[in-house]
User: Fold this.
Amino acid sequence: MVEFESDAMRRFPVPEYDELPSDLRERIDEETERAGFTPNVFAGFAYKPSHFRAFFDYHDALVEDTALDREEVEMIIVAVSGVNHCYYCNVAHGALARIYAEDPTLADQLVANYRTADVSDERLVMLDVAVKLTERPTEVSEADFEHLREAGYSEEAIWDIGAVTAFFNLSNRMAMFADMRPNDEFHTLGREPRE
Amino acid sequence: MVEFESDAMRRFPVPEYDELPSDLRERIDEETERAGFTPNVFAGFAYKPSHFRAFFDYHDALVEDTALDREEVEMIIVAVSGVNHCYYCNVAHGALARIYAEDPTLADQLVANYRTADVSDERLVMLDVAVKLTERPTEVSEADFEHLREAGYSEEAIWDIGAVTAFFNLSNRMAMFADMRPNDEFHTLGREPRE
Amino acid sequence: MVEFESDAMRRFPVPEYDELPSDLRERIDEETERAGFTPNVFAGFAYKPSHFRAFFDYHDALVEDTALDREEVEMIIVAVSGVNHCYYCNVAHGALARIYAEDPTLADQLVANYRTADVSDERLVMLDVAVKLTERPTEVSEADFEHLREAGYSEEAIWDIGAVTAFFNLSNRMAMFADMRPNDEFHTLGREPRE
Amino acid sequence: MVEFESDAMRRFPVPEYDELPSDLRERIDEETERAGFTPNVFAGFAYKPSHFRAFFDYHDALVEDTALDREEVEMIIVAVSGVNHCYYCNVAHGALARIYAEDPTLADQLVANYRTADVSDERLVMLDVAVKLTERPTEVSEADFEHLREAGYSEEAIWDIGAVTAFFNLSNRMAMFADMRPNDEFHTLGREPRE
Amino acid sequence: MVEFESDAMRRFPVPEYDELPSDLRERIDEETERAGFTPNVFAGFAYKPSHFRAFFDYHDALVEDTALDREEVEMIIVAVSGVNHCYYCNVAHGALARIYAEDPTLADQLVANYRTADVSDERLVMLDVAVKLTERPTEVSEADFEHLREAGYSEEAIWDIGAVTAFFNLSNRMAMFADMRPNDEFHTLGREPRE
Amino acid sequence: MVEFESDAMRRFPVPEYDELPSDLRERIDEETERAGFTPNVFAGFAYKPSHFRAFFDYHDALVEDTALDREEVEMIIVAVSGVNHCYYCNVAHGALARIYAEDPTLADQLVANYRTADVSDERLVMLDVAVKLTERPTEVSEADFEHLREAGYSEEAIWDIGAVTAFFNLSNRMAMFADMRPNDEFHTLGREPRE
Assistant:
């Protein structure tokens, strides 16, 4: 039985799970089963059901219909959240980055400075463009696209790099605006050393 | 019969309308009828149908289920796009801001510097927060929420201010990444003087 | 018979045309005849006649004794005003850029992000340097001069690029400081589609 | 007999004094007599006589027809040049600030950080606004005008504060663009200790 | 028996422990005993023994002769390292912050955005000043000192806040310059939940 | 007999020389003899003897055990202090830069914009890296190290460039935090023209 953490978000009231429309409860149950706990972003967006649906549908499209590896998606998210200084996304997606990349230190590298991350040269180009689109979008140019193509990214993968980056510029701002707080679980998930 | 402008977007190929899934064509037809032309953002997002659906569903939720006036929504969009320097959104939503606010010069004010805009003091507070959340999201604080409440915005309206701002931080970046180009019509719509 | 708009400038009192020194009235009459209306910047600078003379003499030198095309001058002005976020200059010189370049959408491109403007590669180099001199003047280097020469600009043209840029860093700040407001006419001038 | 320093400016050829129009030579002679040497900015602007005339006429209007003390004018110039990082103006106007304020250390304070300068609270308000108009002109607001009025500045003096600031945003950029070099004399003028 | 990690630092060769002067080995042994492993910063600074001595003596003075609580010192360090984006210090001092404050989530809050940290109002004022001194040192003013005094900090404690902040602006830059890498242990230390 | 200037530092009380521990007085006497006056930074750090020792030991290690020329050390310091806008260090180390480089105008160039300084191409590369490490430390990369090696700097010299830069990021912040004021002597030292 799902119960939202009362501290899931600090600037808006956290709704009651029981009073949510059934489609929201269904989506929440599914995530809770998968993760073993209910990530606080679900409690946060449940404040406004129409936005909950739109947000998670977009999110799901980005991770389900993509030319990128899931670990690439999470790398982009953490690098973007790091430069935007989003506490919720650093921690929640930091956990996912550790799990999908099977690398217990990767997330702390990406949060601090993606240039220090132990990733391939190809993925470094990907992160260069994601961070540029985040911080200085006016300067994204044809040369960046050329670098991505040279690194082996397909046209669709390049679209997806832009799309994940753009979406987490939304996501970071919603989490920061509402002051969403990551569940304690996220801080430690995926930190066990590689064998 | 809809035909996409070949120059709708420069960094990805513009798809053929005829080859799109029927739900996309339906949404595009509806918009084309309403506007009298097909805004290029529809041609752009049609590159990837799953993202098209997610993007416009989110957009529609923001303008249909909101505690803000439609002109407030468009004011936020143009102020945010102005500081992000997004050509497509400045021009396309500039037109909508002129139309909904029935003010032929408002959009040029908002694009340049929202502080020069002829809007009420209450709406200036709204724009202050939207631009802060765009440019310096780490600094959004309880004091900003207090200012919004004092200006008369309800709790839900405050959520919506954050949500529109966040969404157009996505939107601006997708338009800039793909180099979407506004239709010629948007440059002149709503510029006829008030009577 | 000239009459100044009472809303020409908001932070200083707009003077009476009739009470101005005759040389100012002459310059204003001349402009009014040419344009069909009196641009508000004339009303603004008339606050202090000695500055009016200095400002318009400098302006006139820049457009009359120049190795640049007039449309290049206006392109620089709008690109510079765009990054400085000057409402008056974006709109008033946006109109001039549209007229001289015979391009109804150019100004909106330059205001948003000059990198999206439909201009030749040579003029893009010119705008690169103008915007760099505006935003990061310490970084202007010999390499920028080399790029300008390779793009075909003569030594005198390069001086003029610097001079127009510098002057509109003055102009933008005076307009923003005094809160000058563009005449309604400027918003629509030159927007009719090319044939 | 005037002779220009060959190193007066590095990015454009320094003209021959003898070949200049007589009105330029007259203005240069006058300055040379007053200062005891020819400031390099005269050699620099002589590259283009029409700009020379416009530049010095504007400059002269600012220092001759003003509601500010001359030392206030020079304080603004050095504070503005300090944040713009202009070598020529820091040094040449630093000398003038020392001389007019009769203070051998003032200029080094203003170049580094005007907030450390030994000036009255009133003049600190003046410098606050000058530096804000230089660095963040979009944010200049009615509150800044209120602060200036409370500090005792008249309406015309406030206009002049804006005008001097704006002009040196031009001046700094011309000097930096052309790489003008201050005469050796400026580095030491006015450094003798107060009695 | 101490052995340095070969990956302790990437831009300079990691020295051999055995070949270090005895006073360095002594300091390293002491730390190794205390921590249970040798923090990589010791391996890094051992590259140049005279700098090793100076660095750790300064560090030790800051934590041994201080009017601040040790947890306050570590809070400042992590907040400063977060805005400077220093991977090594985020992680190594993040561990210390968790341990001294007995709070498993504090460090991730401070790294992301100190304003989200669960700290007292008094400590928030302390962090405000530390981050301001890091990012915008010209703007530190008497008002900041007043806020610190009102928050109950003694004159010496205020000096120490400045001193820790200043030292970690050195420390962050040395770690980033040399590309020092935190030991794996630091990533997980102090993450066990409070009882 | 040493006496501290009462205006050596404005935000903390200047201690009495006579009441200082003897090792501090010894270090101060030595400097006073060498310089002919007591630099105010000694009066400032004497506020807290443990920090005085740590600060000057670190400083002395940097200038005594170094692969750089002393004039290179002072060039870095003034370039770094210039971008950090530190009044004390601009002036005090500006004097040292003039003296060690035997160049009366060098310091004013470095304070304004190191790119205008009359230094060799090799030293310009050194200053490029020092300023980048100061302003944008996340962006320092292997390419910067390559440029330094190509300019002839040894591995140890490169470490020293990083170390001096890092230390003066501490130093600048302590001087700015405490509002230390340079002695009058520093403003004029080394300004006599070269023969």
Observations:
- The longest helix of chain E spans residues 155-178.
- The interface with chain B takes residues 113, 115 of chain E (CB under 8 Å).
